[in-house]
Design brief:
This protein is α/β, with parallel strands linked by helices and 216 residues long. The protein has 7 helices and 5 strands; from the N terminus they run E-H-E-H-E-H-E-H-E-H-H-H. It folds into 2 domains: 160 residues, Rossmann fold (3-Layer(aba) Sandwich), CATH 3.40.50.10140; 40 residues. It is 48% helix and 12% strand. The protein is elongated and about 85 Å long.
Amino acid sequence: MERRYQVFVSSTFDDLREERAAVIGALLQMDCFPTGMELFPAADEDSWTLIKNVIADSDYYLIVLGGRYGSVPPGEARSFTQMEYEYALSIGKPTIALLHGNPGVLPAQNSEVSDEGRSRLDQSRESLKKKNCRFWGGLGELTAAVFTGIQHLKKTRPSDGWLRGAELPATNLRDELLRLRREIDSLNGELAVARSEAIPEGIDEFAQGLKRPPSL
């Protein structure tokens, strides 16, 4: 049976539009379901709760890091992408990080301009290097890293994935139906015995008026 896997794609957005499109295209070619915040409509839940739920429901987590650290939500010291990555690790989600091999060559509009931003980016890169990661320089290398990275995760960290309903084994369904049928028959038998033991002899005839209680 062929399983399909849901992969959460995390990255900064404006600077990696083409890269995200390439990653999503590669995942679709591998019969995976790519998910990410830009794929979801507005919801009543706060953004972080929604993000955590989607990550938890995914089979794998993939982060693409270019030359930006990412936006930091109010009241937080970490970017959304770093929060997502650390949450995925905290719940044991299989992860892969795709890091740009030389972010210094990226255009200025796609890079951190402040010392603080560059420092945060460097710290994030060092953290991602400690786990499962691959490097890329262009779109071709990026899509190749997606293919090899996801195949590696499938082999080393197999997940439940998704199956078409039509592909579920019919024998399993028949066995379950037979088990339930036997259980129902057994319960009906126990109920009949309980009723016969609880009803005194002749009470049905009294209820139907076939007998009258003896006169005093």
